[in-house]
Each structure stands twice: as C-alpha cells, then as structure tokens.
Design a protein that fits this description.
three-stranded antiparallel sheet, 60s Ribosomal Protein L30, Chain: A
Length: 85
C-alpha cells in the first residue's frame, strides 16, 4: 500500500519534519493530518491564544479541503470559537 503525502501550496508550511496530509490509496479510506498550530501560510504565528486556536482550525480545514476530491468529503467552512470572559 502506497500513501500519497500532500502539503497544499495555499496552507502553512510544516513546522517540522512531517507532511500535512497522507492519503491512503483506492480501496481504502483514511485521511491522516499532522497536528496543526496557529500560523499563517507564510509561517508567521498568529498573536493571542484564541486567535491561534481559530487559525489552527482554519489550517486544518485548508489541508482537508485540498483533498476535496475524496468522494463523500463535506467541507465545513466555519469553526465557532467561544468568547473570552
């Protein structure tokens, strides 16, 4: 079984020696994402804890969306974050 490794060009670069996504070949269905941090696609970090959390979720969505050709995948564009008290 050969995995396809993907780092989408519109997402942030990997922060270490890993790939953002590995896609399992036909006949199998498994999408594996590396842990994400709150950085922009140019590698700069977002300021503030909640903003980093929200950016990490945006990064996850961007990475998964790059595999949008996967049949049955439904993209969720919004990740609500609670207000700070």
């Amino acid at each position: 079984m050969t995995l396809k490794f993907v780092d989408p060009s519109n997402g942030p670069p990997p922060a270490a020696s890993y790939r953002h996504m590995a896609v399992v070949p036909a006949g199998r269905r498994l999408l594996v994402l590396a842990g994400q941090i709150g950085n922009f696609s140019d590698g700069t970090m977002v300021e503030g804890l909640e903003a980093r959390y929200e950016q990490a979720l945006v990064n996850i969505n961007t990475i998964v969306a790059s595999g949008g050709h996967i049949r049955g995948y439904r993209q969720n564009h919004r990740f609500p974050c609670g207000e700070a008290s």
